Amino acid sequence: MPPNTPRILHVLDHSLPMHSGYTFRTRAILKAQEALGWQVRGITGLRHTAAGPDAEEAEGLHFTRTRGDVGGPPAIREWREAGLLADAIGELAKDWRPDILHAHSPALCGLAALRAGRKLGLPVVYEIRAFWEDAAVGNGTGQEGSLKYRLIRALENHVVAGADRVVTICQGLNDDLVARGVPAGKLSIMPNGVDLALFGTPAPRDGALAAELGLGDGPDAGPVIGFIGSFYDYEGLDDLIAAMPALITRHPDARLLLVGGGPMADALQAQAQASPAAYAIRFVGRVPHDQVERYYALADIMAYPRKASRLTDLVTPLKPLEAMAQGKLVAASNVGGHRELMEHGVTGTLFPADNPAQCAAALADLLDARAEWGAMRQAARAHVAARHDWARNVQRYQDVYQSLLRRNQDGLSTAA
Question: Kind and range of the H or E element at 212?
C-alpha cells in the first residue's frame, strides 16, 4: 500500500454485535485488514436493528449507525433508505475522511455508496456475497421471476455498472456477472474464509453435554452427524431427516444432532417426530455463539445437504469451511457452491442433492471408512489454510485498492 495508509470505510447492511454469517465475514475482513496496518471502519444502514449508540465499538472494531425513519410504498421506501445511508456516509466522511468506500451487498448498500462516492469524489468497491433476489427465493420471501425479483436484479446490475471495482466471494457469482456482460477485468474474487487464529486445538468432547443430549459417552458412544446453522428450506434438512431411517439400518447407533433455528424449525421437528428414526434425532435449538464449539465437538461428521437452486449453485457457504477448520469430516450435497469448496474423497464427501437415499448411503459409507478419517481431516484443514485463511486472502484486496488509489491520484494530478 502507499506510504500513507489509506482509510477504508465499509458500508454494511448490519454488523457486530449482531451475530450472523454476514457479520462474521465482516469481522474477519476488518480484523485481517487491521492486522495488515490498514485503517478501517464500518457504517451500517437502517437494517442494523440492535440497540446501541450512534458510534459503537464491538470486538475492537468501530461502527457508525445510520438513524432515521422511512416510509412510502415499496421501492420508494428502499430508495429513501439508501438516501439516509448515503447522507450518513457523507457526515462521517467530514471527520474521518475515507479514501475508499467498500460497500457490501445487498444492493441498497452499494446504491448508498455510489451516491455518496459521487458527492465525495471517492472510488467505490462493491462486494457481492450473494444475489439477494436469489437469497429471497431460498429463504421463502421471494419468487423467481416475480416483479420484486426483477427489480432487485435490475438494482444489482445498476450498482455493478456504477462501481469502480466489483468483488465476489466465489467463482459462481463471478461467472454469472460475466455472463451478464460485466467486463472480467472489473471483477475480483475474495473467497469465503475463516480466521484460523480462532481455530486452534478443537474443543474436547463434553461428556456431560453428550449424556444430557442422549448421545452416549465413552468408547461405546455411537457416531454423531451434526448440523449447526439456520433452518432454511434450501439447507435441505428435510432430506437429512428423511435419510436417517436408511442410515440407522446400516449404523444403528448413529445419531443426528441439529443445532439452530429458523423458518423450517417447526416443520422439521414434526417430520422428525413422525419418522421411524425419531429416537435417533436430537434438536437443540439456538445456542449462544460462545457455546457453538461445544456442539461441534460432539459431531463426527458435519452434514450440509443443500438443495439444488440458483442460490446454492452460485454461492459458497461459510459453515463447511468452519467445520473443516475445526477438524471435522464434511459431507455435503454436490451443488455448485459445495463443489467449489471441496474435492470428493479428498477434503470431503459429496452426494447428489435432493436425494435422501444417496445422502444416507454417502454418510454410511463415510462411517464405514474410519481408517481414512485422519487423512481426510488433515487434507481438509490444509486446504482451508492454503485457500481460505483470511490472513492470506485479505491481501487480495490490496491489488484492488491500489489500482483505485492510483487511478484517483492520477485523476487529481491531471486536474491540477
Answer: helix 207-212
Distance between CA atoms of 16 and 27, rounded to whole angstroms?
8
Q: Angle at the Cα of 272 (from 203 to 330), degrees rounded to 5?
A: 35
74 with 34, same domain? yes
Which CATH number do you get for residue 153? 3.40.50.2000
121 and 213 part of one domain: no
Domain span holding position 170: 7-193+390-415
> Three-state SS for 327?
coil
> What are the tens digits of pLDDT across the range 193-214?
888 877 767 889 999 999 999 9
CA distance 166 to 189: 9
Q: What is the per-residue pLDDT across 208-254, written as a single tens digit (0 to 9) for each?
A: 999 999 997 766 689 999 999 999 999 999 999 999 999 999 999 99
Co-location of 244 and 321 in the same domain: yes
Angle in degrees, CA 237, 242, 248, rounded to 5:
115
* CA–CA distances in Å: residue 36 to residues 52, 56, 193, 299: 29, 22, 17, 35
Task: Please indicate, yes or no, whether residues 202 and 166 belong to a single structural domain of this protein.
Answer: no
